[in-house]
Specification:
Helix 1 packs antiparallel against helix 2. With 81 residues, this protein is mostly helical.
């Protein structure tokens, strides 16, 4: 099994991060509603959570891309002298 190209791996990670961010925001909004918050407040909490989680997912994807690039770059031995 050959490894996936870095761009394809990052695209999959970005898609997964977006889905997880949306699920997390929905969970926060639903819990806020169940705890008695108004619809407006629950919506604001969900939107804030979505922004924070989506930003974190983008940072994680960027870190993954950087790690994949450095892992595929051959290490040059140090030259003595």
């Amino acid at each position: 099994m050959s490894p996936l190209p870095a761009s394809e791996t990052c695209r999959a990670a970005r898609a997964l991060g977006g889905r997880l961010a949306a699920a997390g925001a929905l969970a926060v909004a639903l819990v806020a509603l169940l705890r008695g918050a108004s619809l407006g407040l629950a919506s604001l909490l969900g939107a804030g959570t979505l922004v924070l989680l989506a930003g974190s997912a983008r940072l994680g994807t960027a870190a993954l891309a950087r790690a994949l690039d450095s892992a595929r770059t051959p290490i040059q031995p140090k030259k003595d002298g």
